[in-house]
Design goal:
There is one protein chain. By secondary structure, the protein is α+β, with helices and mostly antiparallel strands. It has 2 domains: 134 residues, no CATH class; 153 residues, Reverse transcriptase/Diguanylate cyclase domain (Alpha-Beta Plaits, 2-Layer Sandwich). 58% of the residues lie in helices and 13% in strands. The strands form 3 sheets. A 4-stranded antiparallel sheet has the order 4-5-3-8, with helices on both faces. The protein has a two-stranded antiparallel ribbon with strand order 1-2. A two-stranded antiparallel ribbon has the order 6-7. Helix 2 packs antiparallel against helix 3, helix 3 runs antiparallel to helix 5 and helix 7 packs across helix 8. The radius of gyration is 28 Å and the shape is elongated. The protein binds guanosine-5'-triphosphate. It catalyses: 2 GTP = 3',3'-c-di-GMP + 2 diphosphate.
């Protein structure tokens, strides 16, 4: 959860506060309090939970989503819904005279309006998700596991790749795929010269460069430290090497500007690749590629 987002939602928080104050003042301003014995506590529990949960939903929305049309519509819809829930909840504590009886009549109308707004918001959310999915292509395949995302590069970590390779081995037995592991040369030296902060930036920017050069169906994950792992479905070894070479060229020509004085530093990647074999398994396949990479690096 990102609590700093609350500072960016001041208008929505004011609207929420407005609905809350209006519900309290209408309910308690127009009625008379019931005696303790007159209160139906089971209803209080049921309707209080609905009101409380609408607060919780609004809170989660505000600390999870940046400002924008979808967030506003979701929060506004929930505010209307909460307004009905509060009127319903508060009237368990109040008697209304005839002049205020309209409150009971209209209390369900805001919920209906809220549902309409939320339906619109959910449709927009769906559209937004389609756009985000397009951005996630090459970072994500078949499955979403946000706990497995590496926070420096925003790529999935090695365990996610293991699952995806396993899936390929189980479901695509008749078509070979390739696995490539890439390593940044002399990254330790870079870290020591320019610091870990710039090192993190290099990892992030190299990840972006690799992504740009991948096809839609490929998947990139962070393997460990300065190693990246690529899954290239329906791709033989020659094609995989060709693709990896193109990525290395792209990285070689990219100049990283250091934070302290803007010096240009160029980076080189080393890679190894292998393709899946009959009756292959995840760990042996990854180990083969890692061993090859170590040999290339030693050479
Ligand atoms: N900035 C930063 N550095 C990291 C991170 N993870 C690992 N490293 C560093 O990556 C470096 C990896 O060092 P090595 O495995 O010796 O790799 P290298 O210096 O590239 O050596 P060669 O692979 O032989 O070229 C170490 O300095 C680690 O501290 C990270 O998340 N951020």
């Amino acid at each position: 959860m990102n609590y700093s987002l609350l500072l960016r939602h001041q208008t929505l928080i004011s609207i929420f506060g407005g609905f809350l104050c209006l519900a309290i003042s209408l309910s308690f301003g127009l009625g008379q309090l019931k005696t303790w014995a007159e209160i139906a506590w089971l209803d209080v529990l049921g309707e209080g939970s609905v009101a409380l949960l609408s607060f919780v939903w609004i809170f989660f929305l505000l600390v999870s989503r940046p400002p924008g049309k979808v967030t506003s519509a979701l929060v506004l819809g929930l505010c209307f819904f909460m307004f009905s829930a509060l009127l319903d909840f508060f009237d368990k504590f109040e008697h209304y005279n005839n002049a205020a009886a309209f409150l009971s009549l209209i209390e369900s109308i805001p919920a209906g309006i809220g549902m309409f707004i939320m339906t619109y918001a959910l449709y927009q959310w769906h559209q937004e998700q389609l756009t985000l999915n397009r951005q996630l292509q090459r970072r994500e395949a078949h499955q979403r596991e946000h706990q497995q995302v590496d926070f420096i590069t925003s790529l999935y970590r090695a365990d996610y790749m293991r699952d995806q390779i396993d899936l390929q081995l189980r479901t695509k037995q008749d078509s070979a795929f390739s696995v490539v592991i890439m390593d940044i040369d002399n990254f330790d030296q870079f870290n020591r010269t320019y610091g870990h902060h710039d090192g993190d930036r290099v990892l992030r920017e190299v990840a972006e460069l690799i992504l740009i050069n991948l096809r839609k169906t490929d998947l990139l994950c962070r393997y460990a430290g300065d190693r990246f792992i690529l899954l290239l479905p329906d791709t033989g070894l020659d094609k995989a090497r060709e693709l990896a070479d193109e990525i290395c060229q792209a990285v070689r020509h990219w100049s990283f500007k250091t934070s302290d004085n803007g010096d240009a530093v160029f980076h080189k990647l080393t890679f190894a690749a292998d393709e899946s074999r009959n009756n292959d398994d995840v760990e042996p396949l990854i180990n083969r590629v890692n061993r090859q990479l170590d040999l290339v690096k030693q050479a």
